[in-house]
Specification:
The chain has helices at about 1-15, 45-55, 80-95, 100-105, 115-120, 130-150, 150-170, 180-200, 205-220, 225-230, 235-255, 265-300, and strands at about 20, 40. By secondary structure, it is mostly helical. A two-stranded antiparallel ribbon has the order 1-2.
């Protein structure tokens, strides 16, 4: 018995993580020669067992600084609306009966009662150079707007700019016939200012876009006397100016999307939108009344 106790003490000294089962309820088998077999078992309270158990069940802590979100990919989509409009303008210029179309579509200052002329003149162009410039510029300007603000807002700005251009020209250049979509193109150009304001902080290359707007506007202002010098006739500068003024007002009032991370406050942006919508409505109503009472009625009173 003494040798058995010495064996147990020696084993405990060598391996402290093992415990001796020496309960009297358990049977002990003896080897031949009187040696006692001792059985060992790993206790669940041992440090090794706890370490494995905790590693398997304890969730890993989340990092203090999460990974930055991925930047949205730049979406490239063709401006289908403006492509269709450009194809119609090209068809009208190249394949249409010029005499018939000009009789019914051109803005004629003597036919102000025919209200469709304030928009239909945008389908006509004086020559192929005029058509090419308008088509190229409106496609370039409408591409980012149609992707980021939708085709409906772009259509409203384009058509509204053309109508405002005809109303402005009828007041400031009352004897001028109008053809071309330049007023609508100018409205698209300056509506980028409203787009940059509404989507502040979420647009790619915002500084470059702003610079391109001023560059194109300055280039057109510098080229105003060129058609007259080349003998192409008078330029409807009043339509250009009216379309350019209508562009940002229409954009603020109509464009549906705006920045979701706006520190200026949504109430203030809504107030600016309301002022823009009210301003463009007052300008249109004022131009219509001016055409009626300042030009149309006095012309009818003149003796024939």
């Amino acid at each position: 018995m003494g040798s058995a106790m010495d064996a147990e003490a020696a084993l405990l000294d060598v391996s402290p993580t093992l415990s001796v089962i020496s309960s009297p309820d358990l049977t002990e088998s003896t080897y031949p020669g009187g040696a006692v077999s001792v059985s060992f078992s790993a206790s669940p309270q041992t440090p090794g067992y706890k370490k494995v158990h905790e590693e398997n069940l304890t969730p890993r802590p989340t990092p203090r600084h999460p990974a930055p979100p991925k930047k949205p990919k730049l979406r490239i989509r063709l401006p289908y609306l403006m492509i269709c409009v450009s194809l119609i303008e090209i068809y009208v210029h190249c394949l249409g009966d010029e005499a018939v179309l000009r009789r019914w579509l051109v803005y004629d200052p003597r036919q102000r009662v025919q209200a469709w002329r304030f928009a239909s003149y945008m389908l006509l162009h004086s020559n192929i150079l005029h058509l090419s410039l308008n088509v190229v510029i409106q496609l370039v300007l409408a591409a980012p707007l149609e992707v980021e603000q939708g085709w409906l807002g772009v259509a409203a700005v384009y058509l509204g700019g053309g109508i405002c251009g005809a109303l402005g020209a009828s007041l400031l250049q009352p004897s001028l016939y109008l053809v071309g979509a330049s007023a609508g193109v100018y409205a698209l150009l300056t509506s980028h200012l409203a787009h940059l304001y509404l989507c502040h902080g979420e647009l790619r290359y915002a500084g470059w876009r702003l610079g391109a707007v001023f560059l194109l506007a300055g280039a057109d202002v510098a080229s105003v006397p060129v058609p007259a010098l080349l003998g192409y006739g008078r330029v409807g500068w009043a339509a250009h100016v009216a379309g350019a003024l209508a562009g940002p007002l229409l954009g603020l009032a109509i464009f549906p999307n705006q920045s979701k991370k706006d520190s200026r406050g949504r109430k203030f942006v809504r107030f600016v939108r309301f002022l823009a919508g009210l301003g463009v409505m007052l300008l249109i109503v004022g131009a219509i009344l001016g055409n009626i009472y300042l030009i149309a009625i006095p012309q009818q009173r003149k003796p024939s």
